[in-house]
Amino acid sequence: MTDQLTVRGLRKRFGGVVALNDIDLAVEAGELVGLIGPNGSGKTTLLNIVSGYYDADAGTIAYDGTPIAGLSPHRLARIGIGRSFQVTKVFRRLTVLENMLVSGLSDWNETRSVATERAMAVLDDLKLTRLAHEPAGNLSGGQAKLLEFARIMMLQPKLVLLDEPFGGVHPELKRFMYERIREWNANGVTIILISHDMGSIFGLCRRVVTLSYGDIICDGTPDETRADPAVLEAYLGDRHDAA
Amino acid sequence: MNRFVSMRIAGFAALALGFAVLPFAGLSDYWIYTVTIGFYYALLAASWSLLVGYVGRISFAQAAMSGLGGYASALGVIHLGLPVGLGLLAGVAIAGLVGFALGWLTLRLHGAYLGLTTIAFGEILRITVTAEHGITEGSLGLRVPALISGGSRFDYYYLFLVVTAACLVIMGLLLRSRVGLFFQSIREDEDGSASLGVNVTLWKCVAFAVSSAFAGLAGGLYAHFVQLITPSMMSLQEMGIVLAMAVIGGFHNILYAALGGMLLQVLLEMLREVEQWRLVVFGLVTILMLRFAPNGIFGTLIDAVASRRKRHD
């Protein structure tokens, strides 16, 4: 296995607050990694740097062995890094299908008819076909999360960064999303998943990375994470028993 | 082609035909002249709505861009001896380039900061034109060669009609293309748009450039039609009128904004007797429209007809 994503010495400060403190992280192609930690531990900052939304103060990032630090978000999306957002960023006044087409047509080699065909297939897979011509603003919170998934799938990414995809999602829909995430991963897509939902993290991921105050305090299997005293103290407490 | 698109094309064709036969409905020379100026405002208001309504980028420099196109064309013809057609093209190109630069300058600005910067930019252009008296004749105004030498009111009317209709078709095609989809995705959410591979920086600049280029064309046509231009066509008051036209017509749709331009130009002439009070009334109507009917007169009317038809179906 080769590294899909390699982060070395990544550092980021916001004024006096250290968001990331010399982070080293390597994620192999095909892995499904959970990223956990208390609020303000640096999870979303890490995702924002990898996906090009923030510049790091120091450190290197390589994707498939190629340095990507400093590349803009749209370039990273086009080379195969897809991401979702904590608060969904669907285009509310565009229809569901148009939302999908933005993703497909940002590749200038793709024609509208091919993009439409692909979009409808993805929507069908996510059971959104009947909403294809509905403005995205009319979707429920869970449906909007699914649409974000669908738009990322349109990019045909190799690495997907999911930021709290299960927030406010009905348990049944959550299970449906689990299946899709597993299916993506089984098809070779590398996934980094941020969630405060420990049931989801420990149920889906074979590897869990824990951040606290900008440092990685644990990097191991779900069992190792659950048993790690530093993780218990900083984040889990006794809540893993419930999970 | 779906029914909705067919209806819109039919509606647009009917409107164009209506304007084509209008001069034969007994319009006086004065009203033919007024409606010709109405085409200028229609194009200018549509170009503004392309930027504000579809890309979500506010600009108060649109009247200045129109003036820039007008002065560039006029000066090209007068000082460089360009044929008028080439002068117009030069005006379009210069307005487009300056628009691109304004887009780049304001890339990271939003809301009030963006608005204020575009006001400052427009004022810089207007004051420069006013101050460079030796070249532009300043506030006295610049005499501009005619677009059609010896052209009649009819010639200008039909030329403006054809150019305005053609520009609206080009804008419509652009907005229906993938570029139009990128524009709207940027309006909805810039970060979300970039995460799907859209080059937000580039398309924001392109939107400013395209919108300014159409404004520049409008200004060039106006200058060579009226044959006298002054820096007042670049003023904030003029910008306010264009804004009112687009908002009252419906700035989320280029055609509605264009119709707003024509409607207000006609009303401005009809209400000439009340002088500056008509601007007060238009200002009030604009505020009320933004509060109660943000889709404008035409947008609200057509939505009402569509929902009524839906209920009947």
Could you please describe the fold and organization of this structure?
The complex is a heterodimer of chains A (243) and B (313). With 243 residues, chain A is of the alpha/beta class. Helices cover 38% and strands 26% of the residues of chain A. Chain A has one domain (3-242): P-loop containing nucleotide triphosphate hydrolases (Rossmann fold). In chain A, the strands form 2 sheets. Chain A has a 6-stranded mixed beta sheet, with helices on both faces. A 4-stranded antiparallel beta sheet of chain A has the order 2-1-4-5, with helices on one face. In chain A, α3 (96-105) packs across α4 (112-125) and α4 (112-125) packs across α5. Chain B has one domain: ABC transporter involved in vitamin B12 uptake, BtuC. Chain B is built from 14 helices and 2 strands; from the N terminus they run ααααααβααααβαααα. Chain B has helices at residues 3-21, 29-55, 62-80, 84-105, 111-131, 133-136, 153-176, 178-188, 190-195, 200-226, 236-249, 254-270, 277-292, 296-312, and strands spanning 142-143, 228-229. Chain B has a two-stranded antiparallel ribbon. The model of chain B has no long low-confidence stretch (mean pLDDT 93). Chain A binds chain B through residues 51-53, 72-74, 77-78, 82-83, 85, 89-94, 98, 101-103, 105-107, 112, 151, 154-155, and chain B through 178, 181-182, 184-185, 187-189, 191-201.
Helix content of chain B: over 70%
The unreliable regions of chain A are: none
Strands of the biggest beta sheet of chain A: in what spatial order?
6-7-8-3-9-10
CATH superfamily of chain A: P-loop containing nucleotide triphosphate hydrolases
Distance between the termini of chain B: 20 Å
- The run of helices and strands of chain A is EEEHEEHEHHHEHEHEEHHH
CATH architecture of chain A: 3-Layer(aba) Sandwich
The value of Rg of chain B in angstroms is 19 Å
Average pLDDT value of chain B? 93
Share of residues in strands of chain A: 25-35%
- How many separate helices of chain B? 14
Q: In order across it, which strands form the biggest sheet of chain B?
A: 1-2
- Oligomeric assembly: heterodimer
Number of helices, where a helix is a run of at least 4 consecutive DSSP H or I residues of chain A: 10
What spatial form of chain B do the alpha-carbon principal axes imply?
globular
CATH class of chain B: Mainly Alpha
Tell me the radius of gyration of chain A. 18 Å
CATH class of chain A: Alpha Beta
